[in-house]
Amino acid sequence: MVALPEITSPTLDAIEAAVVAAEALNPRRGYIGASSIGNPCERHLFYQFRMAHEPERFPGRILRLFDTGHAEEVRMIAWLRMAGVDVQDVDPETGDQWEVEALEGHFKGHLDGIITGLLEAPKTPHLLECKTHNAKSFAQLKKHGVAVAKPEHVAQMQVYMHLKSLTRAVYLAKNKDTDELYLERVHNDQAHALQLLAKAERIRDANDAPERIGDADSFACKFCDSHPLCHGGAPALRHCRTCMHSAWDKDGCWHCLRHDRELTVEDQRAGCPNHLYLPSLVNGEQIDADEKAETVTYRMADGREWVDGQERTAA
């Protein structure tokens, strides 16, 4: 039997391409996010904060799936209101989504809402966190609870509760396959929140990449989007965030020590000819430095010598 040709639709292809193109226009997050601080690998978080590699790219289908999750949050909030729960999903002072920040603006997060009138505890204000799950993830959530099934979500809630001076959170989850709902109340844990903020502070202040949490083939590492840089020897991106001359400043800003000026977001992404890598972002051992020529020499993992800044001096 002759195989039938695969039928493709140029319209569907155009939809996928348009979704990917729209996502590419979104600015890259330049702060340490509350949604990611529960990630156990500080090295990965350091790479993200320093924008050391390109962000993970997703096909249109996955991006649309993310968007579906955001749309479901709106529905879940509507269901709570139908049940008589008061939900403030925006900050009344700004009219925008609730935002928290710490560490001079280098740590931020965005809340789904703050609620009162929960039937289990009508007088207690609660943080609201809405999430969607596939059937397998939802089953684990029901069986083990959010602390075991989704520890990163708990970390996010603990930081939010701490920064908003709340004592309770509501975790409202939806099974995307069946529309079944799950609700769990979470008590604040000040010690946990402070540990997470201390972790964020270590990442912000670090000039050296933290230790790896596993080897190249470990489950924790092999699917990580930092793997090519962390384990594969891929070069880091060359811009201000990866340069030894840059340093974080107050109000979420960055400062260039070499040129003694504040760096705009555009500056940070562009870099300049005086860029020199943070040594821990180079896949080699530093063996020499020439302060006058502004070069640093490394013995790379493959045995060759490489001089950072040589391209500039040779120009």
Describe the structure in your own words.
- The structure is a single chain.
- The protein is α+β, with helices and mostly antiparallel strands.
- The chain folds into two domains: 28-205, Lambda Exonuclease, Chain A; 238-314, no CATH class.
- Helices cover 34% and strands 21% of the residues.
- It is built from eleven helices and 14 strands.
- The strands form four sheets. Strands 2-5-6-7-8 form a five-stranded mixed β-sheet, with helices on both faces. A three-stranded mixed β-sheet has the order 1-4-3. The protein has a three-stranded antiparallel β-sheet with strand order 9-10-11.
- Helix 1 (10-24) crosses helix 3 and helix 6 (151-163) crosses helix 7 (190-205).
- The protein is globular.
- The chain starts with 9 loop residues before the first helix and ends with a helix.
Note the main attributes of this structure.
globular, 14 strands, alpha+beta, Lambda Exonuclease, Chain A, 11 helices, 315 residues, three-stranded mixed β-sheet
- Strand content is 15-25%
Determine the number of helices (DSSP H or I, runs of at least 4 residues): 11
> Which CATH first-tier class of the largest domain would you pick?
Alpha Beta
- Helix fraction by DSSP (H/I, runs of at least 4): 25-40%
Distance between the termini: 63 Å
Return the structural class: alpha+beta
Fold-level CATH name of the largest domain: Lambda Exonuclease, Chain A
Count of discrete structural domains:
2
Instruction: Report the order of strands and helices.
Output: HEHHEEEEEHHHEEHHHEEEHEEEH
Gross morphology is globular
Please state the second-level CATH architecture of the largest domain. Alpha-Beta Complex
Unreliable spans: none
- With strands numbered from the N-terminus, the spatial order across the biggest sheet is 2-5-6-7-8
Rounded mean pLDDT is 94
What Rg do the Cα atoms give?
23 Å
The count of DSSP E runs of length 2 or more, i.e. the number of strands, is 14
What does the largest sheet look like?
5 strands, mixed
